[in-house]
Amino acid sequence: MAHLDTEFQKQSVPGLKSLLADQFQGKQVYGTECSVCHTRSERESEFMEIEVNLPKNSKLEDRIAALLESEELSGDNQYLCSKCDELRDAKRYTEFRQFPPVLHVSLLRFVFDMNTLERKKGTDSQVKIHQADLVLTMVIMSPKYMMSCQSLGISLTMKLLPRSHR
């Protein structure tokens, strides 16, 4: 997606220059919260797609939930809090702050073969998408949107619509 965006940005027509960003670009935040003083350190970034690992017998909503699960930083992996000025236990998290009009989800169906030390396409991955799964996925991501979707090979593109358009 980034390569396509680079090519579109070379266009002389302003609408084409920003076409992919206008349709597919959203904002996410990577943050860390100190467990002692609750100071948050956040870094906002833009995304054009969400990459979701898809192991055998998994559901899309479960994988998106796993992507958004917070990580506890403790022991040898403590966080240097800028307010406390020392190493502290903390919580690291990812949040979506702004969804694009069209959310592009790349389904990562590859596995690492320890025998050949190569990445290979998983042969046992089957993608099944049910309407109920999509509604649940959207509840995980943003309660004020619903989505309609279309399967596109190994990608899933979801059009985000305000609930009033149901």
Automatic annotation (TrEMBL):
Q: Name one GO cellular component term.
A: nucleus
Specify the domain of life of the species encoding this protein: Eukaryota
Entries under PROSITE patterns matching the protein: USP_3
Report domain USP positions: 1-166
GO molecular function term, any single one: cysteine-type deubiquitinase activity
Gene3D superfamilies in UniProt: Cysteine proteinases
Extract one GO BP annotation from the record: protein deubiquitination
Q: What is this protein called?
A: USP domain-containing protein
